[in-house]
Design a protein that fits this description.
It holds the Pfam family SET. The chain folds into three domains: 238 residues, Beta Barrel (OB fold (Dihydrolipoamide Acetyltransferase, E2P)); 199 residues, Beta-clip-like; 201 residues, Serine Threonine Protein Phosphatase 5, Tetratricopeptide repeat, CATH 1.25.40. Strands 1, 2, 3, 4, 5, 6, 7, 8, 9 and 10 form a ten-stranded mixed sheet that branches. By secondary structure, it is an alpha+beta fold. Bound molecules: S-adenosylmethionine. S-adenosylmethionine binds next to strand 13, helix 18 and strand 17.
Length: 826
């Protein structure tokens, strides 16, 4: 080993070069003395009686083949050079991490990408007490060691590439690389955070470990996918009875020995928003001094940030009875308790705590501000929202919305014909536009919230960073807040998993006690979680201000936001849905888009598209085919006509785009598009609507030189609106109005919205009509069609006139109808 390498290793491992030399000499001596007997063949393993014949198969718990190969020979090698090279590689990687270099070195041994392809993630569901110990030398590559656990010790400080990387040794002194995926609190974590979560010398039991082998080299490594497979073993645990570690351990990373030391570590992690590690550090401090109430209050805040509200409440409440507490501290504890109640959605209880806190310390401003927040939330649980404030908050970069959830007249009901067996129905008759649900996400990630590193996790969900981050957050949340697990784990995970229970919500957990979040009380099936995410992750597209010339927002699917919701994930899909969903940043709002009778199923559109073909591509991940009237009609029209429709559509500029096509071409497209729909199908023909609207736009341009084209433009836009399912009652384009201006009932359209699709386009086509009527000086008709637009927007988005004015301001200016809009009241 050259001097540079020695220095890098020594620094990264926190050893002096002398210690390093000594350590390596010790390993080398042990090895040459035959200090360990690893490297036995699979036959030897079998004959040793360590593993039964049945356990030799290369099948994980779900009966799937891993990495496509037979179990390999026993690994890892036991030579001292192997140990040295492993520690060297890890040390280089750790040094790079400390320098802030992502995934730069150490790939020869520690490349997790190397090993991921083709690997079926497994998890253990067998309690540690029912497993038998296995040694590294008895393990075989490409094999899940069912029925066994590996007792090991972290032999070097951990590092991180994509997974957390560590070097473990078993009691015999054999070493192996360990790759831990999905462990809470480790994503993008710096070295000192990893040291808190996986301190060197910590003893672990890895349940039913999988020994993988690199694709580019033959180095073995233990691959842990599910955090619950790792059990931290306390020194007093009886599992260690009779265990002797062959090698001495050199702890190179300093570990605090006092409560205050751990407080400092916890505070440091907290300042860097590493709340998971902060909780562990505070817990370590509390283990040393259970009466250290300052640590308990600090841990309560860390729990609050992790949104582990029951634990935060428990910590805050535990401090309240302390006798020597000053009023200021007691007020603080009450404030923390109030914040936890608030997080749990118990706003009344939060308000009581806040008042108590204020009485004890009237100088602290926060409780008063939070009291106002409680009052607002108490309005919201009744369904009364300040939509404009929500919209503005949603538009503010980096801000998440503070609102209460609302569950309207809906309930979950068994629906055996739907995948997952459940759906959502109304509990009473509901009118179009009624608010049905306002939901907060379980986890969410937006592109602007990602750190600049672009680090992505190679999950089975693809490389979308927001998705990867949302999944990673999910592990933190499930680890910290395991009582919430049923809310997530009872979501539909696809046909390969048993149908979830039909009761919703799952029974509320009781007897919650805060605990070290590294102690897993539930087994996390990583595959199930990824399947749930694949089925249920939404792409929350924040409501925006409408840009007249189209949006400049990137639609790169790899950069789209990602969020997981609970109750919204129980709505089934229909292309002709009677419910709509929209997002104020992370907050999802579901409304009735049509009148719905009592007990009728509420559906929402998961995705849209002009034909069955484009929808099929979007629905590939779901194992169902939509049986709505539109899809059935497309099936009857056949693939060739659907394909032709898609082709024609691609030759039309997208709505709001300034580009227009020639009049003759627009007419030809319309005529060809009409021919792609069989005469017998219903009125809803969304691709045809676009062709009509395009022709209307071309006519409107022509009308600038020849006003007689204006009426053609109006007629075409009316046809476009009809092709989206709206029934127009008054198609007149001039002359006296057949009805007086007035309430909604006097709209020129039927207010029954039985088979309307794409409200946003209906709305834009209505505004196009307003513009042409206004130019013609027909203010009465312009106002009536303006009301149609307002009404349609309110039905699908809500928020009333005030929100409409904000979102459509630029559009109204562009169409030169701002003055007209001010004179219209709905
Ligand atoms: C987000 S879940 C919806 C709730 C689900 N039904 C449950 O019981 O949890 C999506 C899954 O529901 C099923 N699903 C949704 N819409 C459906 C439809 N129109 N017809 C049949 N199954 C549907 C599909 O299996 C889909 O993968």
């Amino acid at each position: 080993m050259d001097n540079d390498t020695r220095q890098i290793m020594a620094t990264a491992l926190g050893l002096s070069e002398y210690d390093l030399e000594e350590m390596m000499a010790e390993f080398s001596q042990l090895s040459t003395n035959g200090g360990s007997s690893v490297g036995v063949s699979s036959n030897e393993t079998q004959s040793s009686g360590g593993l039964g014949a049945e356990e030799q198969t290369d099948i994980d718990g779900n009966g799937r083949q891993n990495e496509g190969g037979r179990p390999g020979p026993a690994s890892p090698p036991s030579t001292s050079s192997y140990r040295t090279s492993l520690l060297h590689s890890l040390a280089q990687s750790r040094a790079a991490l400390q320098r802030g270099v992502q995934g730069a070195v150490g790939l020869a041994i520690l490349d997790p990408f190397n090993t991921y392809a083709g690997y079926v993630p497994h998890y253990s569901s067998t309690p540690l007490s029912k497993l038998c110990r296995i040694q590294l030398s008895e393990m075989q590559t490409r094999k899940v060691h069912k029925g066994h656990y590996l007792l090991c010790r972290l032999a070097a400080p951990p590092t991180r590439l994509v997974a957390t990387q560590a070097c473990i040794e078993d009691p015999t002194g054999d070493v192996c690389s360990l790759s831990i995926y999905n462990y809470p609190g480790t994503r993008l974590a710096p070295a000192n955070v990893l040291d808190t979560i996986f301190p060197m010398g910590a003893i672990l039991a890895i349940r039913e470990p999988y020994l993988g082998i690199g694709l580019y080299n033959s180095d073995p490594f233990i691959h842990v996918n599910s955090p619950s497979d790792i059990v931290f073993i306390k020194p007093s645990d009886s599992i260690l009875d009779g265990i002797c570690w062959k090698l001495p351990i050199h702890i190179s990373t300093p570990v605090p020995q006092t409560m205050c030391g751990w407080k400092d570590v916890g505070d440091g992690h907290f300042r860097l928003a590493q709340y998971f590690a902060a909780v562990i550090a505070y817990s370590n401090g509390l283990d040393l001094d259970p009466n250290a109430y300052v640590l308990q209050l600090n841990r309560a805040v860390a729990y609050l940030r992790l949104e582990y509200f029951p634990a935060a409440l428990s910590d805050a409440e535990a401090v309240l009875p302390v006798k020597q507490l000053s009023n200021e501290m007691r007020a603080k504890a009450l404030f923390r308790a109030a914040q936890a109640e608030y997080g749990l959605g118990r706003y009344q209880a939060a308000a009581v705590r806040l008042e108590e806190s204020h009485l004890l310390n009237s100088r602290a401003p926060e409780p008063i501000a939070w009291l106002t927040r409680c009052e607002e939330r108490l309005q919201e649980v009744e369904g009364k929202y300040d939509w404009v404030r929500m919209f503005e908050d949603a538009m503010t970069p980096g801000r998440r919305l503070d609102v209460a959830e609302y569950v309207g007249p809906i309930r979950v009901q068994p629906m055996p014909t739907r995948g997952g067996g459940r759906g959502v129905v109304t509990t009473r008759a509901v009118k179009a536009g009624e608010l049905l649900l306002v939901a907060k996400p379980f986890v969410a990630c937006f592109p602007e919230e990602l750190s600049g590193s672009g680090d992505t996790m190679p999950t089975h969900l693809g490389q979308n960073s927001c998705r990867a981050d949302a999944v990673s957050q999910l592990f933190v949340k499930l680890a910290a807040n395991q009582e919430l697990a049923p809310v997530v784990l009872d979501l539909y995970a696809g046909p390969k998993y048993p149908a979830p229970p039909s009761e919703y919500p799952p029974p509320a957990p009781t007897g919650i006690k805060p605990r070290d979040p590294r102690v897993f009380e539930i087994d996390l099936d990583i595959q199930q979680i990824e399947h749930i995410c694949a089925d249920a992750l939404f792409i929350p597209e924040t409501l925006n201000i409408l840009e007249p010339l189209g949006t400049t927002v990137s639609r790169d699917p790899m950069k789209s936001a990602s969020a997981l919701y609970s109750l919204p994930s129980l709505f089934n899909h229909s292309c002709l849905a009677n419910g709509s969903w929209s997002n104020f940043k992370d907050i999802m709002v579901i409304r009735a888009e049509k009148d719905i009778y009592e007990g009728e199923e509420i559906t929402i559109p998961y995705a849209d598209g002009p034909t069955l073909l484009s929808k099929a591509a979007k629905f590939k991940k779901y194992a169902f085919s939509c049986d709505c009237a539109l899809c059935e009609a497309d099936r009857r029209d056949g693939v060739a006509l659907c394909r032709r429709r898609e082709e024609l559509l691609s030759s039309i500029p997208i709505p709001l785009e300034p580009r227009r096509i020639a009049l003759r071409r627009a007419r030809a497209i319309l005529s060809d598009m009409e021919a792609t729909y069989s005469a017998s199908r219903g009125p809803v023909r969304s691709a045809l609507a676009r062709a009509h609207n395009e022709l209307a736009g071309v006519y409107a341009l022509e009308a600038q030189t020849n006003p007689s084209f204006s009426i053609s433009s109006i007629t075409e836009n009316m046809a476009a609106i009809e092709a989206l399912g709206i029934i127009i009652l008054d198609k007149s384009t001039s002359g006296p109005l057949d009805r007086e201006e007035g309430a909604v009932a006097d709209l020129p359209v039927a207010t029954t919205l039985t088979s309307v699709v794409d409200y946003q386009s209906c709305m834009l086509f209505s505004l196009a009509l307003v513009s042409v009527f206004n130019t013609l000086g027909d203010v009465a008709r312009a106002k009536r069609w303006f009301k149609v637009g307002l009404w349609l927007d309110d039905v699908s988005i809500g928020g009333g006139r005030e929100l409409f004015n904000i979102r459509y301001k630029k559009m109204l200016e562009f169409l030169d109808i701002s003055d007209l809009s001010r004179s219209v009241a709905l």
